[in-house]
Design a protein that fits this description.
The protein is α/β, with parallel strands linked by helices and about 325 residues long. The protein is built from 15 helices and ten strands.
């Protein structure tokens, strides 16, 4: 394919989920003449660090940060304030998502896909190994000598899960409690095959692991493909998160970026993303266009029970994050 002129190219940087949807890119190209090219990351820290190190000289005009990254980047001045006169379809979004604590008034980001973090597992294999099935995170420790598992390549998710499994605050800022979570997770090390955001799906399908910590969209996708695989939320409450669309400071092609945002707000496009990726949606008008098999999957929506029991990842002081980083480095590199 011939390379388009720079003004007719849009470079985006997002979770793999949002940059592996060529059909949606192609439809945008047909409508606007703008070619979309995407790069992916597997952790928010990687995304933020890369943008910071390069000063966004890589040319990204659109990024897909999750809520905690939006808050960090907004406070640092690393996001472009949105001109909502160019985004009239904001009205398609459920109002409960439009004034989030991470971005009051949704001034710097479009809330896109709410989701949860839970447990994906091969029910047949897990029952054979343990005689039961998981309902909460303590299952991992109880059967650590029998299971092979993966955890997400995500510092806050993993250490937060360790804190939660001890009955502590998921967002604890207490160094002694963070150390306890680290030691608790160290006890789980014999069962941990790796820390992996995406490739665990292949390991689970192949039977190389029995269970994985998983984002809901990925857990649901794998469960749909294999009747032996299930995705459940921990009884103690899931991590709640929401992916967004934003523009990083220095975005070079604002006209194309706004065109992409407006395109993404259309119900049929939002539904196409859902049907292609199993992501949730904030778009009220897209719901009837979602495949019924997905719409009727209990873990797909962030329901009232999940909201009541769940926990968002809170922004913590730099000194506390340094403690998390130290323990995460020990945990993930040992």
């Amino acid at each position: 394919m011939a390379v388009s002129p720079p003004s007719q190219q849009l470079f985006i940087y997002g979770w793999e989920t949002y940059v592996n949807t060529q059909e949606i890119f192609d439809r945008f190209l047909d409508e606007t003449g703008i070619e979309v090219r995407g790069d992916s990351y597997d952790s928010l820290e990687v995304m933020e660090a890369r943008l910071k190190a390069t000063g966004n000289q890589l040319g990204y005009s659109i990024i897909y940060p999750s809520d905690i990254s939006v808050e960090r980047m907004r406070l640092r001045g690393d996001l472009v304030r949105l001109d909502k006169t160019l985004l009239t379809d904001f009205a398609n979004l459920d109002p409960k998502y439009l004034d989030p604590p991470y971005d009051p008034g949704s001034q710097y980001s479009i809330p896109l896909a709410p989701g949860t973090t839970g447990i994906a597992y091969n029910a047949k294999q897990v029952r054979e190994l343990t005689g039961s099935e998981p309902t909460d995170w303590d299952f991992l420790w109880k059967h650590r000598d029998k299971l092979k598992i993966t955890l997400l390549n995500d510092m806050r998710e993993v250490l937060g899960m360790g804190l939660k499994s001890l009955g502590l605050d998921y967002n604890s800022a207490n160094p002694a409690e963070i150390q306890r979570a680290y030691e608790h997770l160290q006890a789980l090390k014999p069962a941990i095959v790796k820390y992996e955001t995406y490739a665990w799906t292949e390991l689970l399908a192949a039977g190389d692991i029995a269970l994985s910590m998983a984002y809901s969209l990925d857990g649901i996708a794998v469960a749909q493909q294999d009747p032996n695989i299930r995705f459940v939320l921990a009884d103690s409450g899931p991590t709640l998160w929401i992916d967004t669309i934003a523009m990083p400071r220095g975005a070079p092609n604002l006209e194309a970026a706004y065109a992409w945002m407006a395109y993404s707000l259309r119900p049929e496009v939002a539904a196409a993303y859902v049907n292609a990726t199993n992501a949730g949606t904030t778009n009220r008008l897209a719901l009837d266009l979602v495949e019924p098999s997905l719409r009727n999957t209990p873990a797909w929506t962030v329901d009232e029970t999940a909201l009541r029991k769940g926990h968002w990842t809170a922004l913590l002081p730099d000194a506390v994050l340094q403690v998390y980083n130290e323990y995460w480095t020990r945990l993930s590199s040992a």
